[in-house]
Write a structure and sequence with these properties.
Low-confidence stretches: 1-28
Number of helices: 6
Strand content: 35-45%
Number of domains: 1
CATH architecture: Clam
Distance between the termini: 96 Å
CATH topology: outer membrane lipoprotein receptor (LolB), chain A
Length: 289
């Protein structure tokens, strides 16, 4: 009987130890998280093409006022990184000072040029298409991968959560506290040729999207376990500060009036990585000036 008790105690101790080890294998370590981040950055630097769906909303509220302005950027993009080409359709509904403004953008990057068609409430053009030289900043704004890379490179803190399946893809779930500058760069990147100006303001004020007005930021990424590439990204970034008013009379300019809250929330969805794609510019756009 004594021997049976000893054997039973040993068995229970072994079982509890194995259960403890089993649970520990599911607890992500800092080393594991850093490996995922490093592999993801490397994989993003080798992307040849992808699809990107965006739905980001900016809520802009003047403190102490009932006025709240909102702008939404909802777009679908096909991007060929290898040839620096893109095709995009985007809607930008805005509510500014109680008025609703709806804009639609059709944009193409092809052979170093940007073709843009803008239609908006109250905007009338004989030919809605324009063509300009494509610059590196606009390319980064629209493709987003450079900003995600910078967010991962410069983030202050990472947390690796449970695995989750998104659209049939097994993913790591990673939460990130971005650096202030990478959060600012992401927010500014949402600005489009038509709509709310994020990094500039008229009338002598300055934008609230700036380092001293940064309040908090959290970015959640679903990264494919096999590809190491982002599948979905959720964004929450908040700014709070004065935007000033009137003429700028000193340098540096310190705003003292019109405190505002500005928040960015939404998601990016990535798919169809490294597929064969062809971007075709509409015939009517080729004759634009």
């Amino acid at each position: 009987m004594q021997m049976r008790r000893i054997i039973t105690a040993i068995f229970l101790t072994f079982t509890l130890a194995m259960a403890s080890c089993s649970s520990l294998t599911h607890v992500p370590t800092t080393a594991t998280t850093q490996t995922i981040v490093t592999k993801s950055i490397s994989a993003m630097n080798q992307i040849k093409s992808f699809n990107l769906d965006t739905d980001i909303t900016n809520t802009y509220k003047i403190t102490g006022s009932s006025r709240t302005d909102t702008t939404e950027w909802k777009g679908t993009k096909l991007i060929n990184v290898s040839n620096q080409e893109m095709g995009m359709n985007m809607t930008i509904p805005e509510e500014i000072s109680g008025s609703n403004i709806n804009a639609t953008l059709e944009m193409y990057f092809k052979e170093g040029k940007e073709y843009l068609k803008t239609l908006a409430t109250g905007l009338y053009q004989q030919n809605p298409w324009t063509v300009t030289q494509l610059d590196d900043i606009l390319w980064k704004h629209e493709t987003q991968i450079p900003y995600l890379t910078e967010i991962l490179k410069n983030s202050i803190q990472f947390s690796l959560l449970d695995n989750e399946k998104i659209n049939g893809i097994d993913c790591y779930v990673l939460t990130v506290n971005p650096s202030i500058q990478s959060a600012i760069d992401f927010a500014v990147s949402q600005e489009q040729p038509f709509g709310t100006q994020i990094d500039t303001m008229s009338g002598g004020g300055i934008p609230v999207v700036r380092p001293d007005a940064y309040q908090s930021g959290s970015i959640k990424l679903w990264i494919g376990r096999n590809s190491n590439l982002p599948v979905k990204v959720e964004v929450n970034i908040d700014f709070q500060g004065n935007v000033g008013g009137g003429m700028i009379t000193s340098t540096p300019y310190t705003p003292t009036t019109n405190p505002v809250d500005s928040s960015f929330q939404g998601q990016l969805s990535f798919s169809n990585y490294n597929q064969s794609v062809s971007i075709q510019v509409p015939e009517e756009a080729l004759g634009a000036k």
